Amino acid sequence: MIRHNVYFWLDPALTAEQKTAFEGGLRSLFEIDVVKGGTYGKPAGTPVRPVTQNTFDYALVLEF
Questions:
Q1: 3-state SS class at 19
Q2: Cut 0.90: pTM above it
Q3: How do residues 28-58 score in pLDDT, each as one tens digit?
Q4: CB neighbours (10 Å) of residue 62?
Q5: Are the C-beta atoms of residues 54 and 37 closer than 8 Å to each other?
Q6: CA separation for the pair 5, 62 (Å, rounded)
Q7: Which of 34, 29, 4, 8 is nearest to 19 (CA)?
């Protein structure tokens, strides 16, 4: 198995409709026949610490 991680920083000017369309695009990736699993989501609301990187808007993990 290969696991591929992608992090997205979206343009702050995107509308709610555009963000919804973006999430739809992420969901559509799971329909690709070679994609065996994975997930996507927003960063957890964890406290700011030197070892925590949560400035991204979405994370995507695909398993092949």
A1: helix
A2: no
A3: 999 999 999 999 999 998 888 999 888 999 9
A4: 20
A5: no
A6: 7
A7: 8
